[in-house]
Amino acid sequence: MEVTRNHIGTAFHVVRTIANNLGWQYTHGNLSDFDFKQFSVFPLCHNTINAVNVQENVASVNLTLTIADRVYFPKSEMSVVDKSDYLSDYGYTENANYAQILQSLYVDFISELRKQEQLFYNNLNYTRPVGMIPFVETLDSVLAGWTVTLEFTITNPLVTDGFC
After folding, report:
1. Regarding the domain with residue range 8-160, which homologous superfamily does it belong to in the CATH classification?
2. By C-alpha distance, which of 10, 52, 2, 42 is closest to 144?
3. CA 126, CA 112: separation in Å to the nearest integer?
4. 58 with 38: CB under 8 angstroms?
5. Which residues of the chain have pLDDT under 70?
6. What is the pTM assigned to this prediction?
7. Residue 161 pLDDT
């Protein structure tokens, strides 16, 4: 897909490209529909569209991304667990700890987002600052990562598709 005619697909294309370039599993849709135990490729990037706000010549596409990796996160300092036994059920990939996962995901994602902006300079604009909230999910799967709020400004489809 070319990023010369901006539309909602442009925002999805950019996020998918970031995930592919980083070797991450990419999904989109309602987050509650996914069972993350079924995925074998981590880290992952899940894309959910929140809203589209249309103005005269532009539209803004608001997305929530969940970027996460499996991580060993002990429930307490007193936990004595053989990591290899405990994590083999979760597809552990030798990630050392929570802080390392957060740092790696943050740096990789922001660096790749910046590369995409430079690559498509005139056709891609995202609103700054990019909001990132850390999370840890330790119920069914041991995941750590970021919930990212990202907003792209695109040309109003009525302009690009020749309706104006």
Report:
1. Phage minor tail protein U (3.30.70.1700)
2. 42
3. 13
4. no
5. 1-6, 34-40, 72-97, 121-123, 139-141, 157-164
6. 0.76
7. 59
- Residue found by looking up tokens 């897909």 in the block: 1
Alpha-carbon gap, residue 160 to 162, rounded angstroms: 6
- Every domain of the chain and the residues it spans: 8-160
Helical H runs in the chain? Answer: 8-22, 83-88, 98-119, 157-160
CA-to-CA distance for 39 and 155, rounded, in angstroms? 35
Give dist(CA 134, CA 102) in Å, integer.
Answer: 7
Q: Tell me how far apart the alpha carbons of residues 138 and 79 are, in angstroms, rounded to a whole number.
A: 14
Q: Is 135 helix (H, G, I), strand (E, B) or coil?
A: strand
Compute, in degrees rounded to 10, the torsion defined by CA atoms 108, 111, 112, 118: 180
Tokens representing residue 156 in the block: 């109003």
Contact 94, 104 (CB under 8 A): no
